[in-house]
Design a protein that fits this description.
mainly alpha, 13 helices, about 65% helix
Length: about 260
């Protein structure tokens, strides 16, 4: 079998799995939409890994765009926050900000944070705002070694700001200081910080790509096989049997395991 035929067999497994779990229910439009979303998500990943192969920085940009194709869970909440009369008082303000950071949309994250009245007077917010604005842009024709230098310089600034803000994190009376601290640690690529946002990230593979954006955007250090294993375990409580075949296929694609896809 070719890998495309094997891909089609995996789609069939998903169909059978869903059908078995809903034996007495015909597919409705929502089920069909979800199935098509999975098919497109898988095909796009296969395309960027095996067909439209580019250099590492461009591949990270492709993965970011692929992640955002399926990372729509918080879009409605983001719209509600933006359209609210007083954005920073909305109950989802800080979670939407974290969602924008995880999706790699740091420009809009900075704009949202800038809407908070404290962003012009609280030093910890000003420093976070500057880090969001200064994150090195992923460009399709960036040279890997140049982007690596820019990213490592930015990352050192993140760690420097965290060291400088430790007393503030411990003693501040700001009611949102916990959220700010969390965002600093997300930018630093702290794995524990990522473990605590599984309710905001829509899947283990999206959370993995978010992690790479802030640890290894040049794809120099980590192996997909080990990262897939780690992040699938982190999000294990979100996986049901219906999702298992699809997640297995995504995992095997990242492992470059064409014989098993």
């Amino acid at each position: 079998l070719t890998w495309i035929e094997k891909f089609e067999l995996n789609i069939a497994k998903i169909l059978v799995s869903t059908e078995e779990n809903n034996a007495s229910v015909h597919y409705n439009l929502l089920q069909l939409k979800e199935l098509l979303r999975k098919m497109v998500t898988a095909w796009q990943l296969f395309e960027l890994l095996f067909i439209d192969v580019r250099n590492n920085v461009a591949r990270m940009l492709q993965l970011k765009e692929w992640m955002n194709f399926s990372y729509r869970d918080y879009e409605n909440r983001a719209t509600e926050v933006i359209e609210s009369e007083v954005m920073h008082e909305h109950e989802d303000f800080w979670n939407v900000l974290i969602y924008l950071i995880l999706s790699g949309d740091l420009d809009h994250a900075a704009l949202l944070l800038e809407s908070h009245p404290d962003s012009r007077q609280e030093l910890v917010l000003i420093q976070l705002l500057n880090l969001l604005r200064d994150y090195p842009k992923l460009l399709p024709y960036s040279k890997r070694h140049e982007h690596y230098i820019h990213f490592e310089t930015w990352r050192e600034k993140v760690h420097e700001k965290i060291r400088g803000c430790k007393d503030v994190f411990e003693s501040s009376k700001l009611n949102y200081i916990g959220k700010i601290k969390h965002m600093f640690y997300l930018l630093a690529g702290d794995i524990e910080a990522f473990k605590s946002v599984t309710d905001i990230s829509s899947s283990w593979y999206n959370l993995m790509i978010s992690f790479l954006l802030f640890t290894d955007p040049c794809l120099n250090q980590f192996k997909f096989s080990s990262l897939c294993e780690e992040f699938r375990k982190i999000c294990a409580d979100k996986e049901n049997q219906e999702e298992k075949n699809f997640n297995d296929m995504i995992r095997r694609a990242f492992d470059y395991d064409l014989d098993e896809c």
